[in-house]
Design a protein that fits this description.
- By secondary structure, this protein is α/β, with parallel strands linked by helices.
- The chain contains four helices and five strands.
- Strands 1-4-5-3-2 form a five-stranded mixed sheet.
- Helix 2 crosses helix 4.
- It is globular and about 40 Å long.
């Protein structure tokens, strides 16, 4: 297995989405991101980065939700393998009106900043313990 590029895997189980509530959360103008480390789990793969996407009906009708999810998926594919940490789960949640309409460059910058802040929050959490 190539350790330089992490393996990006989609989260498919509802139980994995529910575990995200125990993780860290950061709100950006275009979306909400939740992240958590899986290092303490028994099925932990050190090279995997898992991601999930969700958009509620508040985002809009099916066309708007699907457009928002396509944009979030493109963000994940472009940025998470580079900026994300191996062994982490990330969930991006679309926000009404902004995820679908905001400039993609701004969304990319927001995701990079959010990942950096999530990882710093995790370091602070570890230092407290």
């Amino acid at each position: 297995m190539n350790s330089s590029k992490p393996l990006l895997v989609k989260i498919t189980k509802k139980s994995d989405y529910l575990k995200m509530k125990t993780g860290l959360k950061f709100v950006t103008p275009g979306f909400i991101i939740q992240g958590r480390s899986r290092k303490k789990e028994c099925n932990f793969d050190p090279y995997q980065i898992r991601y999930g996407l969700t958009c509620s009906k508040r985002v809009g009708n099916a066309v708007k939700r699907n457009r928002a999810k396509r944009r979030l998926r493109a963000l994940v594919k472009n940025i998470i393998p580079i900026e994300g940490l191996k062994g982490w789960d990330y969930v991006l949640i679309g926000k009404e009106k902004t995820t679908e309409k905001m400039s993609f460059k701004i969304l990319e910058k927001n995701l990079k900043d959010a990942l950096s802040k999530l990882h710093k929050m995790e370091l602070k959490k570890i230092e407290k313990n």
